[in-house]
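Protocol step 4 of 6: record predicted structures for both targets in the notebook before any analysis. Target 1:
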Amino acid sequence: MSKVNWENYASKGFFDELIAAPGKPRPEAAMLCQYLADLDAREISEHKTAAEVAIQLMGITFTVYTEGNMIDRAWPFDIVPRIIPLSEWQKTEAGLKQRVQALNMFIDDLYHDQKIIKDKVFPAEILQKSVNFRPQCVGVHPPHNVWAHICGSDLVRDKDGTLYVLEDNLRVPSGVSYMLENRNVTKRVMPELFAGGRIQPVDDYTSQLYDMLASMSPRPGDDPCIVILTPGIYNSAYYEHAYLAQQMGVEVVEGSDLVVGEDDCVYMRRIDGLSRVDVIYRRVDDMFIDPEVFNPESILGVRGLMRAWRKGNVALANAPGAGVADDKVVYAFVPAIIKYYLDQEPLLPNVPSYLCMFDKDREYVLANLDKLVVKPANESGGYGMLIGPHSTKKEREKFAELIKADPRNYMAQPTLSLSTSPTLCADGMEPRHVDLRPFILSGETPWVTTGGLTRVALTKGSLVVNSSQGGGSKDTWIVDLAGN
């Protein structure tokens, strides 16, 4: 590992988050870049080792499913933060709040009057073929009319510096614990950089999450009973479930720990008897939360939970059925959804999209598979995608058949030139592609994390940032240039 020389660092053809040109850091990154340049090769190596030791001691892991096995791995972390100026972030935050407000109004409308369909702004056929629309949720009025209480929207920056929303995760979004732990690790490794007060804090997320969940309680009071419903210790996000529960001071429960009584209220089994539960932050997918209503073979959920929820005796976050808007085809309509419900222009742009259900779009996609990214409507984690420029002829032929067989299930977007950020590699500092997942909480009022989880493609040239497919992450700094 060598000493950092920013004169030798170049991210050709891409927008770099820290370095504007060789040897010229962006204003918000000047402090960090000078700090790193002042370190010798031994000190840089020591910083990297210190981060790895901290991750081991703190027990920060994630689970990878591979060839039928589950492997716990140490969280892959890069010590060089990604930096965004506060002035830009304030605009981004406003755009995220606008977006999630409109999406919640959209979900609520779909389960009630469906005005947006009657007014021909949103095609009925998309709803008819939605795998995440839940007829069992029709007519329900969740607290504050909010369905997606926790949203993780993925943002990407193109080569011209424009920040786009790539997708919205409204079912059971994960990753926020890693955002918080990334900051804890960075503070251990480079504590002196936080002394000036320019780097905005992120550690209020769990208190904001607790307050939002408490505001949903059907029994208003100072001490509602809140639990996190997990599929169990073998779930890939179990580390996060346990972390958030510990930080909020609430219980982690599995389906077998809960029971719905004859009064249609939910109770937690305790050593001293049953205790009523007010709010469930569920990390179990819709189809497994209640075998009475959904998958009858599920052992992950609670029989009768939907009855209790429909009667308003327990609050669920996120609400069942919120995933109807977590659909990559629905995504293409979000600018129209914002205009329809809020009568506003979107503050954050979508990536241009082609919907294969439309003949003209489908013809274009099939003719340009080598140039586009093709996504199925409801996959996540980077699975099931075709990245055209990196694909083989055989892969493109396979996707052409898939698209023709089920056009509604596929959409395509141009291959963006994802921004890069300096990343510490075996041969020194190199550019690697990044995205960003901020988290938006929606209760009585919306709230957005200060920055989010920056994911980084650790493989040179790769655009895949998902940790399940070899990606890592960085701390994300929102820097106040006007600060002291």
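Target 2:
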Amino acid sequence: FPSHDTGGLKVYYEANKNNYMWEERLDATIYTCKDAEIAKKVREMLAKQSKSGKPSDDEIKAELNKDSQLNLKVEAGKFIKGENDVLENVKWEPGLSSDIAFNGQIAIVNVRGKVAPAPKTLNEAKGLVTADYQTYLEKEWIDSLRKKYPFQVNKDVLFSIK
């Protein structure tokens, strides 16, 4: 399979992209706080954020991690079921969760909503698409060789081999 055949890979992906689907995901931000004091500060800052959009998650993290990088970890994204243990304790409904005690820390989850199943982008599924495309090309190549060079098995000769 020529690794430079990006055009063929894109065409193959477009024709088969429904084979590479995300399942339902949760669009959320997880705030993992060192302790209850940091969690309280995060809640206060999130209350301001919901009214004015400020401070941003990066600003909250920078403010609370001035003394120690271990005070707050912020993880935003789209998560599938089972991908993150904290999310197993959260309803998949928009809003801010209650404090979740987890591994000696406090987690707060800001759920923005559910994301319906959708095809993965070519970049997200590139490994799978590349493998499937290579299999497709090999099958096409073998089929073309069989059409060009038909063969027959001489069973008398085959069964005479000992």
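Step 5 preliminary note on target 2. The first strand starts at residue 21 and ends at 22. The chain has a mean pLDDT of 92.
Proceed to step 6 after PI sign-off.
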